[in-house]
Specification:
7-stranded mixed β-sheet; globular
């Protein structure tokens, strides 16, 4: 008789794995910037667990202090692996804290409610000053804590964990202005991190994220919305060469995309000596439904001084204009607006020396089914084919995917981009899948697909119902 087995056997634990979880972050400082107690879980609960397990030094800072919830806050962070001595209350200078800590990686709440917006805006303003005045260049990951966490669908009790879904106006609570696919919130460019093994189970029991949520006694079923197969962010690069330039309008180089804008017909950047540039990114037209025509002049420093002219179209709705210009050394840049809409404005201009920056977080890949991250995936017997693809975190090389059932190899494919391949399950009851970068087996992902019958599916639903009742009883909900 086939029954659902909630406890993963040792053999399966050894089979499922990802190189993401093997990296040590000893010596890496991480800062979580949250508005209120409990927001730290919405912002980066899984990443706190991941990085604590990898021996990173984690600090959590709050802009609002609630003495009544202090004990609960300490208990919740202890569950996640954060020492109470690393909790910071922002009743003093945020700029001083940022410069004193000099965290390598910062996860910060974004502007999706008034309190979150206050902290997000303050952080971006101060960071813009720091980037202009110093050589401190942290990795920045912003999070819409409500739209992509607290107000997500309560889909935890699905047969398999589901990835975070894009918020939609009219569907997602409190999501009244559509940020997705505007400015740096491009959904297909979101950063997705895997979740630790302890958070992949189909029950809330013994799930550390759920336990941390329940440590806040007023929290009820947030876990059903927060627990997914990935945790997502929107990255902001800080290695912009414009921070060391003389700029004709500082609004175009202040780290803030949703803030002051430059409406000047001509915008200039000048450097004391040529700086290396490989990529130019321009954000603008944040609230404009029309494109704008730009002429970009680059004075290039080489053996024979030369000029490069680029005619480009700045997209509507704030989508970034991304220009890869090869490897050149620029001493002056001029952006001229040739044609614009009524709400035109340039929000931020970025000049990058490299296509990708150096990061503390190592490259990784993760296999997906129907765009969902999966680790152990249960599928009914009547399903014959599974669509597979791979999410890449700064991995450009070809990836080999193999699938084995027992001693039989049933699939070997090489993918070079984001294409989807179809896995035919045949008669196999259990399939082990491996994806690895060709030429670098140290970047890999392994997962399992298991066939399950009707009885196992019914039993899973029963276990989940009992789990829900258990939480009702413990939490007195």
């Amino acid at each position: 008789m086939e029954l659902y087995d909630e406890i993963t056997c040792d053999e399966e634990t050894a089979t499922v794995g990802n190189s993401f979880f093997e990296r040590s972050y000893f010596g890496t400082r991480i800062l979580i910037l949250a508005a209120n107690f409990g927001d730290e879980i919405l912002i980066a609960g899984n990443m706190i667990l991941n990085m604590a397990a990898a021996r990173a030094e984690i600090f959590v800072a709050y802009s609002n202090f609630d003495k009544k919830l202090l004990a609960e806050n300490i208990d919740a962070l202890k569950i996640l692996g954060v020492d109470s001595k690393k909790i910071i209350y922002l009743n003093n200078d945020l700029k001083k804290i940022l410069l004193d800590l000099r965290a390598n990686i910062i996860f910060c709440v974004d502007s999706d409610n008034p309190e979150h917006k206050n902290l997000s805006v303050a952080f971006e303003k101060i960071l813009g000053e720091i980037l202009t005045e110093t050589d401190y260049r942290p990795e920045i990951y912003k999070k819409l804590a409500y739209a992509t966490a607290l107000n997500c669908p309560p889909d935890f009790y699905a047969p398999n964990l589901i990835s975070v879904k894009a918020p939609k106006i009219g569907v997602t609570n409190d999501y009244d202005f559509d940020l997705i696919d505007r400015a740096n919130y491009i959904w297909n460019s979101r950063v997705r991190f895997p979740v630790p093994e302890s958070c992949r189970k189909t029950l809330l029991k013994n799930n550390p994220i759920a336990e941390a949520i329940f440590a806040y006694k007023k929290n009820h079923w947030a876990a059903l919305r927060i627990l997914n197969s990935d945790e997502i962010f929107f990255e902001r690069r800080t290695d912009n060469q414009a921070y060391c330039a003389k700029v004709s309008n500082a609004a175009a180089c202040d780290f803030k995309i949703f803030g002051e804008i430059c409406t000047d017909k001509i915008l200039t950047f000048e450097w004391a000596e040529g700086v290396q540039v490989r990529r130019i990114v321009i954000y603008g037209n944040i609230f404009d439904e029309m494109t704008a025509q730009l002429k970009i002049r680059l004075e290039i420093e080489n053996d024979i001084d030369s000029e490069k002219i680029i005619n480009a179209e700045l997209p509507e709705r704030g989508r970034p204009l991304i220009l890869d210009v090869g490897k050149i050394f620029v001493r002056r840049a001029e952006i001229e607006t040739i044609q614009r809409g009524k709400d035109f404005g340039i929000a931020e201009v970025e000049f990058f020396a490299q296509i990708e920056p150096l990061r503390k977080i190592a490259p990784f890949l993760k296999m997906t089914i129907g765009k969902n991250f999966f680790y152990r995936y249960d599928v009914p017997y009547e399903v014959e084919n599974i669509p597979l693809s791979v999410y890449r975190f700064h991995v450009d090389e070809p990836i080999k995917i193999t699938a084995t059932a027992g001693d039989e190899n049933i699939l070997t494919e090489v993918i070079r981009g984001n294409e989807e391949i179809i896995l035919n399950l045949g008669e196999a009851k259990e399939i082990i899948l491996t994806a690895e970068v060709i030429g670098n087996a140290n970047i890999y992902d392994r997962a399992i697909i298991r066939r399950v019958g009707d009885l196992a599916q019914i039993q899973l639903k029963m276990w989940q119902w009992l789990d829900k009742m258990r939480v009702h009883k413990i939490r007195n909900i």
